[in-house]
Inverse folding.
């Protein structure tokens, strides 16, 4: 009999790739989605659907016991929300509820997809984020993920692994895609004019390490990137090379962008929605140094990223073209 894994956030960008990787590893996949989730793109995958009640620990425990999940990869999360309390509810409370249920039901491993936003970027261009860097999240999103980690660590009997990915890109992503689409249109906008060290991880590499983490040493936390750092222009430069396109490059004043983002945020919240580009997102985009050390993920998880930014963008842009997201 195959081992069974519950993947939450299955309808999302990362979730799709987690499912593919789990199936490749001969796991039986239960995809946790909501009644409102868009799941057309999952229809050809050999998976079962489930609709966990993240607000109910007893119901979650029953579900885990009845469906006999061996493992859980918890990727459901809010990357955009209208308030800090919404982030905390979805990212921290729901994570705790599922983890508590997993502990009670005795799952073999609970892998939590956290975020490098729990640490926050370094303010200096020198140095890199390591295991010893004290968490200093500067967004409500990062704070909610850190709270989730703290709640998880309070569960003494749970066998967990926490992964903290930096910015994730790849087929089906809709966030970094906003920038790539501008490049395709010949527009190359930047916020402010500072030197930056950015880090990225290709979604298929993240999926590989997430599945590896199911069989990893317990109770540890790993920062995840492709191991490199990139200056702020490299993503656009590679994209222009791949699309054989030219752009007009310009730098918008930070304060101007903040005002526009604040207005956009207010309009979205009046409509009851979370803005895609908001003040928090801006602060992440203009942060100085996201370079992070992944040596421990290499040695303990056997995580050897297969895609640097050029290889990952080649795959990604080909997918966007094939699927008519880009011309
Ligand atoms: N993308 C990145 O750059 C990045 C970087 C670091 C960490 N992460 C983490 O990776 C995970 C996946 O992110 P993603 O980029 O794949 O985001 P995404 O495409 O927005 O997917 C989020 C998933 O979470 C589910 N979800 C959101 N709110 C929920 C709720 N209240 N109840 C149940 N399910 C809910 C969504 O379900 P619906 O489809 O029903 O909305 C969706 O399946 C998140 O935990 C995120 O924090 C992402």
């Amino acid at each position: 009999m195959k081992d069974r894994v519950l993947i939450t956030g299955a309808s999302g960008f990362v979730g799709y790739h987690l499912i593919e990787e789990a199936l490749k590893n001969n796991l039986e996949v239960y995809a946790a989605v909501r009644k409102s989730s868009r799941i057309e793109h999952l229809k050809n995958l050999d998976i079962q659907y489930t609709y966990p009640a993240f607000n109910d620990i007893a119901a979650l425990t029953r579900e885990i016991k009845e469906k006999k999940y061996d493992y859980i990869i918890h990727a459901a999360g809010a990357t955009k929300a209208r308030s800090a309390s919404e982030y905390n509810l979805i990212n921290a409370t729901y994570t705790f509820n599922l983890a508590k249920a997993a502990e009670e039901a005795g799952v073999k491993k609970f892998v939590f997809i956290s975020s490098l936003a729990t640490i926050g970027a370094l303010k200096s261009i020198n140095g890199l984020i390591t295991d010893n860097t004290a968490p200093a999240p500067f967004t409500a999103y990062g704070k909610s993920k850190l709270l989730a980690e703290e709640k998880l660590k309070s569960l003494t009997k749970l066998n967990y692994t926490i992964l903290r990915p930096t910015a994730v890109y790849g087929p089906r992503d809709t966030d970094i895609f906003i920038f790539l689409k501008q490049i395709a249109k010949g527009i190359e906008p930047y916020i402010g004019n500072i030197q930056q060290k950015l880090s990225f991880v290709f979604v298929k590499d993240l999926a590989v390490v997430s599945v590896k983490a199911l069989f990893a040493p317990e109770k540890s936390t790993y920062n995840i990137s492709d191991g490199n750092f990139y200056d702020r222009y490299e993503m656009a430069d590679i994209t222009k090379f791949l699309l054989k396109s030219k752009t007009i490059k310009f730098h918008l004043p930070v304060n101007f962008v903040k005002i526009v983002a604040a207005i956009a945020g207010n309009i979205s919240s009046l409509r009851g929605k979370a803005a895609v580009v908001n003040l928090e997102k801006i602060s992440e985009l203009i942060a100085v140094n996201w370079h992070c050390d992944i040596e421990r993920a290499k040695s303990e998880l056997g995580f050897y990223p297969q895609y640097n930014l050029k290889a990952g963008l080649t795959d990604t842009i080909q997918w966007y073209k094939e699927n008519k997201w880009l011309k």
Observations:
- The chain has eleven helices and eleven strands.
- The pocket of NAP is lined by residues 9-15, 34, 36-37, 54, 75-79, 90, 113, 115, 165, 167-168 (CB under 6 Å).
- Residues 120 and 137 are 5 Å apart (CA to CA).
